[in-house]
TrEMBL record, chain A:
It comes from the Bacteria. Its main location: membrane. GO terms for molecular function: ABC-type transporter activity. This is Transport permease protein. The keyword tRNA-binding does not apply. GO terms for cellular component: ATP-binding cassette (ABC) transporter complex. It comes from Poseidonocella sedimentorum.
Automatic annotation (TrEMBL), chain B:
Keywords: ATP-binding, Nucleotide-binding, Transport. This is ABC-2 type transport system ATP-binding protein. Signal peptide: none annotated. PANTHER family: ABC TRANSPORTER ATP-BINDING PROTEIN (PTHR42711:SF10). Pfam families: ABC_tran. InterPro entries: AAA+_ATPase, ABC_transporter-like_ATP-bd, ABC_transporter-like_CS, ABC_transporter_ATP-binding, P-loop_NTPase. GO terms for molecular function: ATP binding; ATP hydrolysis activity. Coiled coil: none annotated. Residues 5-234 form the ABC transporter domain. It comes from the Bacteria.
Length: 253, 309
């Protein structure tokens, strides 16, 4: 593996992020603040506590996950789709590098950006609510794995997409609903029994539940299942990416 | 001279069944400028893309500097710089960063002195901090060349470097290519302009419908391409060529009303004067005379016919 090539892609991608620093930084801060005003302030005043945690604090892990997932996904999918769209893909294909360097560079950069924004949101949240982190190591692990796996997933979408519509399709049609219905803003136990069962088929539930556990020590599903789910998802994405580069699907004629 | 790039029996077919390369053999000599001449859709770009790793051959082997482009792709590709036909650049990136990215992708240590040398050579130094979308089309093409040179390749592929480029820039481009050759870089360029091949190439390869029809020393090919046809229309039909003019190898067409004489512009004497005198002496009355240069297309047609025969 050529570390210089990975570094070249990574710094190039990160520079794009820092070039638009204002947007990258301000927009998550504003939207998080809005969530706190609307959900925490308006709705939260009617729900005093969820499982012993104030509603405002309860939604922080879900909010972080929501943003981290969508950011990792959109950054990675856009990152690799852009060279396809601009025609600069030729450069990656004719360089003496394999898929390892390309994935490491693009996914690494997308995951870093998502992580950065996730931290910004947590810091913003700490101004609004009392937060505690019961299991800091697990929290970091969940956060990193989520950034990584969704960046990998985004990379796959970016390779698959032939146009900007397709690039938006999966994030809008699949991921956003799954994340919203994944218990970002509520506990699964608040749902009627039938919907509780349905929810268990939503993979995002396991991620948000596990992440929330690392904050408040409570989870909708067992923590081991959550870890298994995120590890499995990461492995699945890696497998698909390995296959893409082996076969040259949508990349190499 | 040893070959730096060696292409053997390379075929490339697509899922649609279209065969873009139908068994290409090509040896590119170290340090030469080879022009690949061919009409649109001949397979020029496919051949280059396959050597550079953008597409993969269905059959056959390619080596660059002795390294197989599939089995040992890292070693093979690090010797190659590629300037694509289409201008493909990120519009908001700055020139110097774009060039530096390519160097990094090729695993070379960051070296500002090398980048500066290349940018100066291509008259891009003053534009190093400009965004790419602020540059003119010709400047963008230079950026593509700068990127391809950023990792100091031994072999440079230029895919139609002067397509859609104005005359002045074309001259500049040719000067750059000559300069690179002087530095020892092997250059392969594709074009469909004969004059381009004429101006800078050492050897010329002609490719058509996925086959290399010939690879020849430029001067030899230019002599072949410099063929002209003199068309003589006669007042009254002629049954046979007059005996005195037998060595002219004239062709009779139009039931004896037209005589065709083929000659080379590069030949010391065209023989036209003597031919016309000879015709007059033989009592043949001329109605009209015209000449036509065989076009590139005619030459392709001839070559394809020869090839099929």
């Amino acid at each position: 593996m050529s570390l210089r090539a990975v570094n070249a892609i990574y710094t190039y991608e990160m520079r794009r992020f820092f070039r638009t620093m204002a947007q990258s930084f301000i927009s998550p801060v504003i939207s998080t603040s809005l969530y706190f005003v609307v959900f925490g302030g308006a709705i939260g005043s009617r729900i005093d506590q969820v499982e012993g945690v104030s509603y405002g604090a309860f939604i922080v892990p879900g909010l972080v996950m929501l943003t981290v997932m969508t950011q990792a996904l959109s950054n990675a999918s856009f990152g690799i789709y852009f060279p396809k769209f601009m025609g600069t893909m030729y450069e990656l294909l004719s360089a003496p590098i394999s898929f390892l360097e390309i994935v490491a560079g693009y996914v690494g950069a997308a995951a870093t950006k998502a992580l950065f924004i996730g931290v910004v949101i947590m810091v913003t949240a700490s101004f609004f609510v009392e937060m505690q982190i019961a299991h800091p190591l697990a929290m970091v692990a969940f956060l990193l794995l989520t950034c990584l796996s969704f960046a990998l997933f985004g990379f796959i979408i970016g390779i698959w997409a032939d146009n900007f519509e397709q690039l938006q399709l999966i994030p809008l049609l699949v991921v956003t609903p799954l994340v919203f219905l994944g218990g970002s803003f509520y506990s699964i136990s608040m749902l009627p029994p039938f919907w509780q069962t349905v929810t268990l088929f939503n993979p995002v539930v396991y991620l948000i539940s596990g992440f929330r556990w690392s904050f408040y020590g409570q989870a909708d599903v067992p923590i081991a299942v959550s870890l298994l789910a995120i590890a499995g998802f990461t492995a699945l994405c890696l497998l698909v990416i390995w296959w893409i580069f082996r076969t040259g699907w949508r990349i190499r004629q | 001279m040893p070959s730096i790039v060696s292409v053997r029996g390379v075929r490339k077919s697509y899922d649609t069944g279209f065969e873009a390369l139908k068994g290409v053999d090509l040896e590119i000599e170290d340090g030469e400028i080879l022009a690949l001449l061919g009409p649109n859709g001949a397979g020029k770009t496919t051949l280059i893309s396959t050597i550079c790793g953008i597409s993969q051959q269905t059959e056959g082997t390619i080596t660059v500097g002795g390294h197989d482009t599939l089995k040992d792709f890292r070693a093979a590709r690090s010797l190659i710089g590629l300037v694509p036909q289409e201008i493909a650049l990120e519009p908001f990136e700055r020139v110097e960063n774009a060039v530096r990215l390519t160097r990094g992708l090729f695993g070379k240590r960051r070296d500002d002195a090398v980048i500066e040398k290349i940018l100066r050579q291509l008259s891009l130094w003053d534009k190093r901090d400009s965004k790419i979308n602020e540059l003119s089309g010709g400047m963008k093409r230079r950026v593509l060349i700068a990127k391809a040179l950023s990792h100091e390749p031994r072999v440079l592929f230029l895919d139609e470097p002067t397509a859609g480029v104005d005359v002045e820039l074309r001259q500049d481009m040719w000067n750059v290519v000559r300069q690179l050759r002087a530095d020892g870089v092997t250059i392969i360029l594709t074009t469909h302009y004969i004059e381009e091949a004429e101006a800078i190439a050492d050897r010329v390869g002609v490719i058509s419908a996925g086959r290399i029809l010939l690879v020849e020393d430029k001067d030899a090919l230019m002599r072949r391409m410099g063929q002209k046809v003199l068309r003589i229309e006669l007042d009254s039909p002629l049954g046979a060529v007059p005996e005195a003019l037998a060595d002219y190898d004239l062709q009779i067409e139009d039931e004896g009303r037209t005589l065709l004489y083929t000659y080379h512009t590069a030949a010391p004497r065209s023989g036209i004067g003597r031919l016309i005198t000879g015709l007059t002496q033989a009592g043949v009355a001329l109605a009209d005379v015209s000449t036509a240069q065989s076009s590139l297309e005619d030459i392709f047609v001839d070559l394809v016919k020869e090839n099929a025969a």
